[in-house]
Structure formats: C-alpha cells, structure tokens
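User: Can you recover a sequence for this backbone? Please restate the input before giving your answer.

Assistant: Of course. Working from this structure:
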C-alpha cells in the first residue's frame, strides 16, 4: 500500500519513526520523527493523520484510550497440510476458546490459538510448546495434527495481545486518529482492515470537496462528522467481533453452552441464516439493527430447541438464562460503541456538518 501511494505523482514518501506530535496553542502542526540514520527531523502539515497502530504512543492527547486485553493469540505457520475445506477460513470451537486456521499461500496455513487472559505460558522454558501439544493439539481436525506438531517443534511460535478499544476521540484541530490507534476490536473476525479501509473512504469523501485545509479549527469542527458517519460499518463489525468471541468461548455454564451450540447450528442452517451474519461480518451490510436481530434470533433459536418438543421447568430456566446471558454479552458492547451514534446517527448534530467556507 505504501509503494502504491508512493507511485503517485502528488505524493512524496518519507519513512521514519514518529516520536511526538508538534502542538502549538492546542493545534497539531505536524510531527517530529527520527530517520533510520538516527537524524531528528520535523514535518509540518495542515492535517496530520495519526495511525501508528495498536501500540500507539501518540493517541493519548487525541482520545480517551480504554484498552482491554481479553486474550492473546499464539501464532504458528503450518506447512504442507490440507484444510478440511480448501480456500476457506476455519474457526475451531475449542476449549477454552477458539482456534483459527486460514491459508496464506498455496503451501502454508496460519494458525492462531486464542489464550484467554494476559498471562501466557513461557515459550523459553517449553511451557508453551507443552500447552499447545497437550491441550490444543488433541482438539484439532486429524488432517492438521501432524503439521501443527511439526510447527511447534520448529519453534517458530509468535504471540500477540488481542486488544479491544472503543472509539472515544477528543476532536483536535490539525489532527485525526485512524486505524488501531483509534479503535480496536477482538481480531477473531479479522475486521480491523475492513474498518480501517471503510474509515479511509469516509474521510476521503469528506475531504474531497475541500481545496484548503489551513483553517484547522473550522476543519476540525467539520471532521467531527467523520466519527458519526463511520459508525454503521465500524460499530457493526466491532460489536459482532466482541459478541462472537464471548459466545465462542467455552463455559461451564449450561446456558452459555446452549448459546454456543445454537450459534453454530444457526449458521449451519444456510440461506439468510448464514449469508446474513457473513454480510455483517464482512462489512457488506453495515446495519447495526440487523446485527441485533440476528444475535437475538440465535438466542431465540437456542431457547426454541430447549423447549421443543416438551418443555420442562429446568429447560425453561436455562432458556431464560440464555436470553439474559445474550443480553449481558451484547448490550455492554453497544453501550461502549454509543447507542445514539449506532442506531440514530441522523439525530447527532455533527452528522450534518457542512464543509468550511472556502
């Protein structure tokens, strides 16, 4: 993507490590950065797009970063093995949490093992290898077992914290946050790039009618609409990622087990029960209300299976807890995303911001 951007005649690319934002009277004027040679330089611009990733050290002055780390991914690359369904991503509903497999070349498959919490078994003393071989490997499809063990023995194990952070920006003249520096969701659904690219399209359309970006205060006021216009895609994918992760994690609670199985069987029904959630997952149907409908349809489907053909008091109680559990999963995520911006964006004044006068 950098090479593509650099190939354009009106783009000049400078590469370095940004160490700080240049601020003057509450307005961001540019950045200070260090080149590969160690030289400290400054770059000035009327608008600075800050997108320095999940470990951002620049976002603190631009947003309220409430970062949650629900789990970590342990990554491996499996070689010369066949997935159960070629050219498809796979989610293994393992205990205690999901395992992902997806092809990255004609001979390689990436495996991401989700480990709940922030404390991982040590790679250095062999605890991680033992955990993967004894706890994880027995739960895998047989055709992936040998390649998985081989990848562990090669020792190329990588780890990455899975971060979640709702968008909570401080509109700042001269700067705009984007990407994982601004908003993160659990990577189970791989929605990060979809949200980032969608945000780029929203920002492009906002900036297109402007011929001058030099009035930082007016521009910042205008770009407040960005935070509302991005919500349909971003909040749908964020909410689905958080909700699916919680549903797919194993639990000793019978109601949670029923919800997990109901979700799997609901998707297995095919037709709209499959294409609907996949359209939400991919950003092709950016409608938060549609997400809520499907989520509670899964819960009702689970309750229906419990009560048919003959309901009992115990099954009715599990069904009630299933609905309650589903609500406790999705409503906090929706609250963090912002109910008004998600479902009633046209009632937000910033939605109607006009471009500043030329």
């Amino acid at each position: 993507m950098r090479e593509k951007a650099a190939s354009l005649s009106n783009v000049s690319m400078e590469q370095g490590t940004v160490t700080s934002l240049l601020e003057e009277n509450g307005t961001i004027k540019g950045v200070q950065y260090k080149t590969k040679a160690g030289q400290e330089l400054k770059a000035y611009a009327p608008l600075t797009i800050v997108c320095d990733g999940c470990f951002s050290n620049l976002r603190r002055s631009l947003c309220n970063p409430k970062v949650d780390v629900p789990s970590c991914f342990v990554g491996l690359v499996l070689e010369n093995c066949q997935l159960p369904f070629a050219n498809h991503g796979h989610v293994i509903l393992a205990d205690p949490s999901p395992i992902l497999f997806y092809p990255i070349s004609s001979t390689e498959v990436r495996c991401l093992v989700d480990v709940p919490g922030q404390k991982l078994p040590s790679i250095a003393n062999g605890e991680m290898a033992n955990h993967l071989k004894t706890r994880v490997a027995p739960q895998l499809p047989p055709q992936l077992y040998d390649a998985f063990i081989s990848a562990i023995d090669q020792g190329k194990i990588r780890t990455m914290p899975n971060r979640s952070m709702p968008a909570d920006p401080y509109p700042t003249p001269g700067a705009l946050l984007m990407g994982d520096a601004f908003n993160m969701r659990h990577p189970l659904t791989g929605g990060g790039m979809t949200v980032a690219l969608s945000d780029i399209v929203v920002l492009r359309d906002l900036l297109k009618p402007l011929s001058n970006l030099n009035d930082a205060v007016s521009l910042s006021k205008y770009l407040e609409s960005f935070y509302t216009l991005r919500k349909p895609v971003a909040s749908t994918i964020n909410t689905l990622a958080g909700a699916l992760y919680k549903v797919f994690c194993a639990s000793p609670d019978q109601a949670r087990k029923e919800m997990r199985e109901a979700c799997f069987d609901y998707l297995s029904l095919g037709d709209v029960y499959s294409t609907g959630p996949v359209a939400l997952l991919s950003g092709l149907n950016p409608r938060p209300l549609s997400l809520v409908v499907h989520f509670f349809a899964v819960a009702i489907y689970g309750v229906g299976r419990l009560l048919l053909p003959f309901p009992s008091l115990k099954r009715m109680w599990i069904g009630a807890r299933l609905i309650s559990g589903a609500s406790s999963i999705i409503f906090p995520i929706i609250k963090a995303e912002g109910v008004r911006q998600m479902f009633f964006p046209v009632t937000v004044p910033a939605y109607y911001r006009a471009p500043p006068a030329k």
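That completes the design. Residues 313-337 form the longest helix (25 residues).
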